[in-house]
Amino acid sequence: MDKFGMHSQTEQLHARHIGTGNADTTKHQWLTNQHRDTLAHYVSDDSLATYISIAEGESAARTNHAARHKRKQQKINE
Amino acid sequence: MSDNLKAQLEAERRRRKELADSSTGSHSLSTDVKFDTDIYNTSDKFAGYDMSIDTDTTQDTVAPPTGRFGITAPRELIEELHGEGAEDDDDPFKALQRTRGTNRVIADRESDYQKRRHVRQLSPERTDSGDGGVSYSEAMRKNQLDREKADLLAKIKKAQDTAEEKRVAGEPLQPTKRRWDVETPVHPSSTAAPKRNRWDQTPADVGAVAATPRRNRWDETPQVASGSGVAFGETPKRVRSRWDETPVMVGGSAAIGFGATPAGNIGMATPSAAQMAAGASILAKQQPQGQPDAMEARNLFQTDEELDSLLPKDGYAIMEPPPTYVPIRTPARKLMATPAPLRGSDGFHIPEETRHVDFDIPKEVPGVGALPFFKQDDMQFFGKLLDGQSEEDMDLAEKHERQVLRLLLKIKNGTPPMRKVAMRQIAERAREFGAAPIFNQTLPLLMSPSLEEQERHLLVKVIDRVMFRLGDLVRPFVHKILVVIEPMLIDEDRYARSEGCEIISNLAKAAGLPAMIATMRPDIDHVDEYVRNTTARALSVVASALGIPALLPFLKAVCMSKKSWQARQTGVRVVRQIAILVRSGVLPHLRSLVDCIGHGLDDEHLPVRTATALALAALAEAAAPYGIESFDSVLKPLWLGIRKHRGKGLAAFLKAIGFIIPLMEVEYANHYTREVMVILIREFQSPDEYMKNIVLKVIKQCVATPGVPVQYIKDEVLPEYFRNFWVRRMALERRQYHQVVETTVELANKVGGAEVINRIVLDLKDESGVYRNMVMEAISRIVQSLGAMDIEGRLEELLMDGVLYAFQEQAGEGQVILDGFGVVVNGLGTRAKPYLQQITSALLWRLNNQNPMVRQQAADLVAQIAPVMKSCGEDELMSRISVMLYEYLGEEYPEVLGSILGALKSIVNVIGMTDMQPPIADLLPRLTPILKNRHEKVQENCLDLIGRIADRGPEYVSAREWMRNCFSLLDLLRAHKKAIRRAAVNTFGYIAKAIGPQDVLATLLNNLKVQERQNRVCTTVAIAIVAETCAPFTVLPALMNEYRVPELNVQNGVLKSMSFLFEYIGAMAKDYVNAVTPLLEDALVDRDLVHRQQAASAIKHMALGVAGMGNEDAVLHLLNHLWPNIFETSPHSICAVLEAIESCRVCLGPGRIVQYSLQGLFHPARKVREVYWRIYNMTFVASQPALVAYYPRIENDGDNVYRRYELDYIL
User: Source organism's superkingdom (chain A) (predicted)?
Assistant: First the structure.
């Protein structure tokens, strides 16, 4: 319909990138995505993970595990 | 009374005959005189004439005369008119239409083999329960019956043939009739093919001549083939032609006979019997339709009143008809009696174009609306929609059927928007309609003979969509769909083939493997080869869709079939098609596939053996270079097979071997190659083209294998190969020509270039031009890939001699000789020095030639060999050539002029500006007027040359001359060819650099005011290029000043130039950001949409260029002006704005953009949310990890923990 317009390739975009939204995205969905991204970031970014583990007084592995666990819980809730 | 007359005639005839018989014996005065029989024709001069007039029949005694006069056009012209083979292509315009792409009817371009699809019928749907449809067992039984019937027919035919042969062999051959031996009175109708001589003026027995049904479009009136009354009522079937637009699907239905006969013919001088028949058929046709019939009206009896008014009162009396009078009732006689023209009596009328008054073609169909077109044969399918019945009182099924019809009509004939909507509806409601209404309407449409490509594409799309929705509901229709779709698999159009593949694979997925196998099983050993072939292809598609392993057990069973060899052949063919379809995908199943078909090599039926060999070839080709171990089991039968077979079978076996040998290990390859080589060398002499191609291919494959020793090839293969394949005859056929050249190049790769060239170099002087071409192509490809290092001494001389000879002798166009010359000279490099003198004189002579083609080729050759001449140090010679070329700049043939310019360019490139002869100062002024030439080749070469001079040696030319060039260049900015525009723009840059940007820029800025868009666009590009080559500060002030001109085009041009400028200068922009910001700011708040769009694109390039350069403040300022434009709806501007925002993200960081977009993500207005989410998505996709830190802090609500506490940690 509109090649360059608003809705071009949105379906594709959603399929490819989880976390993108549209006009009907709810606050809860949006924040769920944010949390998932954040947790993934904790796990993947070593320096951030170290920072958090120092702040919490935990080992880096445990912080990592906690983030993964939380992510799993979130998945169950979804 | 007529009986009486007939009896009298008969008696008279008998009497005459007796008289004649008796007179042969008597010696009357007249018969006493003897003629010289060899000079005068004394035989019965009435031979060949009808001796009496047959009064018995009512028509066709007056057979249609073949010509109005006794002496007609020469025989060959008549025959040409009748056209040899005119039956299959009766319309000479059809081929033309095809080539122009105006005729897209599929049926017209099909080969005879493809036409066989029309023979197939849509079988009733298959059911397993047996209610109404055909069950699997019934289908199998029917198939069996068909096969037996075909066998029986074949037997009967064979028996008849042998009987015929015996009979023919028993009879003495009839001597052919010559012009002079009229002694033997041969009655034309008694000979098999009556050869009419142009001297026997009166056609003796035209009925016999007319019996050959050679029709063409000139005899519109269908001839009644033989003089019998049978043809009277029925309308003859015609081949379709463009003249009667309406093809009718089955047989000759009513419209054809009517349309084919221009009604005006009736009533012309001699109404022939055929015309009468046609006329009668018109009558028969029209009466039931109850239309006012002109013919009938004219032939009504005149009433008494009419006669009274016509005739004078006195002198006439009304007579009683005699009691014996019987009025003639036969309509044909009636026509004879009153040959009245159909409409009006004032002479001939051109029959009207729309002859099909019987159908009024609707433009509007109830429930569908106006259609762009509605073809005559759409009536056949969609006529139902026009019957005007209301749908209220119909039952559901009928309603659905009509709805489907309507949708199909919209899809087939509708405008694109209509079609789109209908397509969606039919897909969405497919389950509601059910499979039957949809397929029962769609599939017959696909079988229609007047179907066009576009329509087929659309209908196939319908099937695809519907199938997807219906799922396993399609099962009863699988066979029907296959019948319709399978022909697409052998279509010549690649897209049609892949479309067919897709449908069948979707069908297989929807219906499932068991259903597919059950449906296709009966077709596997169908009597018709066409059906088996298409079924094999379809099955291979099923295999690739559902996985090869799933189909393997079935294939194995089929290939083992004891019942019929046709089934085995089809099974093997399926394997071959699988290999072709899935390529390297066969590797995991290679061994099982080979095992599955392997025993076919020893089959008792040749077709199975051939198919197996071909399948093995396809498998080996698909598997290359792996999988030789899978072929172990078939190697022996293959190599044994080549000893046992001849002809096609042997070709197939050789092909398989050719593909298997490259997979082998070195020593095995060597061994097997030697085995096969004997056969190959024997087959070198085969006259069969197919065999020749295969042999060449196999030789190529064998030679390419590393295991085969060079010496062996040299000793065993080369002599025979060159003796058999390097002959003139091979050059005549295009495919063999290429095969031979390719194989020869491969051989040269193996044994070395010199060895091969040595054998063919003398053929460069062959007298056949095509053959010289072939030799030259082979040599040039060999030299190109192997170099000319091993060519030395005598061979080198021979080669150069031959090449020169071929070049001198070449006729017509063709790059081959020219390229070959260039390649050889370049290959020799400095060793070409001794020949350059000779070449140069030849070139000079040829540049002076009268034939433009020769001049062009000479100039092209100069362009090719200039680098070699330079490296040989022959500057002297080159100067001579370039002076000559310079003198010929007045050339009038543009092609030649272009080549001359190209040659000059090449010389200038190698010789340099300073040493150029003639001096640049002389050369350039000659080029300026040539720029005005409109020919693209001239323009391009001239521009390249000028650009080269402007780049390397601008100082040789005065500034004024360059300015003159600039003006000419402006015109070239609107050239059609992109290369020319690009060259022109680049040349602006060079010239600007040479003479300073001021003058050039002034010219260009003036050019922004012109109306033409393309010109302006190119000017903006040129300005940007000038800015890039001469540093932006020389251009920007003038450019920004120009923005003050209150003219839309100029301002937009300025913005566009800035956009290009920033694109080209990249990071250099950092010094100019602050300078241009006010201008861009102004543009972004302009009312004009294009202003904002251009400004956005300028910002895009600028922000990208200055990312990380410390200009964030300016970019942020611009972003603030940019942001309100996000609600733009025009595609170009919204695109430009969003891209600019992306660039700003790169420059300012994603956090900023997210903060901006947070304002609108949950805005109450959907339109606003949509745009903001789009920007958010853009940012998210580009820099998702960076966003983690920038998400807003959101408080928990209820059960949900939204805060991310870890981000609050501070150490």
Answer: Eukaryota
pLDDT tier, B1154 (very low <50, low <70, confident <90, very high otherwise): very high
Does a structural domain hold residue B205? Answer: no
Q: Which of B1132, B1169, B1211 sits opposite A23 (nearest CB)?
A: B1169
In a domain, B1131, yes or no: yes
pLDDT for residue B996: 87
**A6 CB near a chain B CB, below 8 Å?**
yes
3-class secondary-structure state, position A18: strand
What pLDDT score does B289 carry?
43
Please give the model's pTM, rounded to 2 decimal places: 0.63
Domain match, B1067 and B1175 both: no
Same domain for B1071 and B1162, yes or no, is no
Q: Would you say residue B323 lies in a domain?
A: no
Q: What is the mean pLDDT of residues B930-945?
A: 92
C-alpha to C-alpha distances, B703 to B675, B749, B1017, B1128, nearest whole angstrom: 14, 9, 57, 66
Give A30→chain B minimum CA distance, Å. 10
For B1050, the domain range is 996-1148
Q: Do A22 and B1170 touch (CB under 8 A)?
A: yes
Confidence of residue B222 (pLDDT cuts 50, 70, 90): very low
* Amino acid occupying residue B884: M
Both B1060 and B1044 in one domain: the answer is yes
- Domain boundary pick from B911, B937, B967: B911
Residue B1134 at interface with chain A, using a CB cutoff of 8 Å? yes
Side-chain half-sphere exposure of B1063, counting CA atoms within 13 A: 19
Residue A8 at interface with chain B, using a CB cutoff of 8 Å: no
Q: Cβ separation of B1171 and A6 shorter than 8 Å?
A: yes
Same domain, B1157 and B1141: no
- Same domain assignment for residues B897 and B1018: no
The CA distance from B1189 to B881, in Å, is: 72
Q: Is it the case that residue B249 has pLDDT exceeding 70? A: no
DSSP assignments along B1096-1161, one per residue: HHHHHHHHHHTTTTT-HHHHHHHHHHHGGGGG--SHHHHHHHHHHHHHHHHHH-HHHHHHHHHTTT
* Cβ <8 Å between A22 and B1173: yes
Residues B1041 and B1182 grouped into a single domain: no
Boundary of a domain, candidates B890, B911, B932: B911
Domain range list for chain A: 46-78
Residue B1068 domain flag: yes
Q: Within an 8 Å CB–CB cutoff, is residue B1158 touching chain A?
A: no
B1171 Cβ under 8 Å from any chain A Cβ: yes
Give the distance from residue A57's alpha carbon to the nearest chain B alpha carbon, in angstroms.
11
CATH number at residue B1001: 1.25.10.10
Out of B1170, B1191, B1194, name the one closest to residue A23 (CB). B1170
Reply yes or no on whether the pLDDT at A67 is more than 70: yes
Q: Are residues B1083 and B1140 in the same domain?
A: yes
Indicate the burial class of B551 (C-beta count within 10 angstroms; 0-12, 13-18, 19 or more): buried
3-state SS class at B369: strand
Q: How many domains would you assign to chain B? A: 5
Q: Which two tokens stand for residue B476?
A: 């009863």
Mean per-residue pLDDT for B130-142? 69
Write the residue in B1174, B1180, B1206 that is nearest to A19 by C-beta.
B1180
A61 touches chain B (CB under 8 A): no
Query: Is the preceding peptide bond at B925 cis, omega within 30 degrees of 0?
Result: no
Contact B534, B571 (CB under 8 A): no
Report helix, strand and coil shares of chain B as percent, to nearest 5.
70, 0, 30
What ipTM was reported for this prediction? 0.94
Task: Tell me if A4 and B1209 make a contact (CB, 8 A cut-off).
Answer: no
| pLDDT tens column, B560-602 | 999 889 999 999 999 999 999 999 999 999 999 999 999 999 9
Q: Judge if B865 and B1007 occupy the same domain.
A: no
Q: Give the integer Cα–Cα distance in Å for B964 and B370.
A: 59
